[in-house]
Amino acid sequence: MMNRDSPKGKDESKLRRWVANLQLESWQLELLITGFSIFLLATGIGEYNEINRNIQENKLNPGANGLNPLLSISINFILDTIPIGMKFFLINLLIHLLLRGFWIGIVGLSSVSNFIDYDKLGFKGKFRKFMPENVRSLDELIVYLDKISSVIFAYTFLLVFSIVSVVIVFAIGMSLMSVTVILSTSQELTVWVGILNLLAIFVVLFYFILAVIFFLDTLFFSAFKKSKWFSVLYYPIYRVFSVISLSILYRSIYYHLITTYKRKQIVGISFVLVIVLIVTLKADALDVNVFYPERTNISEQYMVDEVYDNLRADDHFIHRLSLPSKYVENGFLELFLRYNPKDNGILELLCPDSYKLSPEEGVMQGFKAGMKAQMDTTLNVDELIRDKNYEVKLIESLVCQTQIFEIYIDGELYPNPEYAFKTHPSNGERGYLTIIDVAELGRGKHLLEVKKLKAGGTARLRGVQAGDLKMEPMSKLNFWIQ
Fold first, then answer.
1. How far apart are CA 347 and CA 464, in angstroms?
2. Which of 207, 313, 335, 444 has its CA at 20 to 30 Å from residue 320's CA atom?
């Protein structure tokens, strides 16, 4: 038995006193963190959605920037899951704040009176025995609420971290799966490539099977660790996935909860919280306008404000095209067609010479031009490093890229539109601007339709080929000539 007078015993005793004091005062920290977290979550969900929309619009389109589509999808999956986790976190913290507020109210009431005079209430019959036995005193209620509030506070963080673990493990699996896509779409389908592809598929399947085993063990209260024979096989799986899923950061909370509380209590609380989350998400998606048609951009019968610059909200992006206004006053229709990184595969097939077109040469050419300009002051560095054929390449690139569009006005193909590269002032969207003379069309309503070359999702995964391209409707919108 350890001597309490020893240095180690004194240190442990001091630590125990410090922890006990911290436990007594933990409710203050809980309220402080809860209130601050609720404020951040309530104000941050909208900001995060805007940032996420900006990232996905401009950076993480599948097939864009040479990024593997499955890898892009896995990153998008993580980004899209974060708002759900934030809402779940917010709901649990609100429940915790409500319970803590109730607890503080009970503490205040107990300072005034802590005794229930059942004789004064005058209960009769079975109520005379039932009520004193089943109604908690204020002291008992204070202890009970304090315990429940602390558990919910810790359990909230455990569930959020668990969701993060699932998302991370799934995203890693999707990233591994992208290797199989790269191998299966390789231009050199040799025997070795086929073998590597089969091996990669086996590794991905094996990874997901192990991941399912790991999470099942967590859901079933560490059942696999209790098996005499399976625990030997499961041990290395647990060690690896503890690191991959980051569960090493929060597993202390998990083991404390499953050893302190009954399984039915944990399952019951989890079920209630999940139901609350589902109801909240369903409430957001509730639609009572069952006879109102779904929004679409390819029907002239549906007016979409986002396609008109003067009607679109400042924080909304241009997804396909835009007009300055639905009314044309000067006889010229300015049509902006957005460049979509999802079309990179198509443009790589049609316009290989347009890839990363730049008016300037590399670093070494710039260094040499600078040295020449230093030796001959009549020379200009910009003129020396600028590609003399850049303007010609730019025109060729513009003509090549815009061939994926077809413009129809009142059902007739508009011939040979002239385009220019343009960065739209709305949110910096990149695209192509063409100005169409519509003065001769006459006053009144007219229909603008744009079609676009598209390739299927599977084509983008394996590489776009000429046979995959098909001109399909992209958008229809009305405009009025005054």
1. 9
2. 444
405-409 and 444-454 beta bridge pairing: antiparallel
**Beta bridge partner(s), residue 113:** none
Q: Which residues of 56-80 are buried (b: 16+ CB within 10 A; e: fewer)?
A: bbbebbbbbeebbbbbbbbbbeebe
Contact 409, 438 (CB under 8 A): yes
The answer to whether 49 and 79 are in contact (CB under 8 A) is: no
- Please answer whether residues 387 and 393 qualify as being in contact, where contact means their C-beta atoms are separated by less than 8 angstroms: yes
The pLDDT value recorded for residue 59 is 57
- Give me the pLDDT at residue 307, please: 86
Residues 173, 244: Cα–Cα separation, whole Å:
11
Q: Does residue 1 surpass a pLDDT of 50? A: no
Which pLDDT belongs to residue 310?
Answer: 87
Instruction: Categorise residue 66: left if φ over 0, alpha if ψ from -120 to 50, beta otherwise.
Output: left
The 3-state DSSP composition of the chain as helix, strand, coil percent (nearest 5) reads 60, 10, 25
pLDDT digits (tens, 9 = 90+) for 428-442: 888 999 999 988 888
Please tell me the number of Cα atoms within 13 Å of 453 on its side-chain side: 21
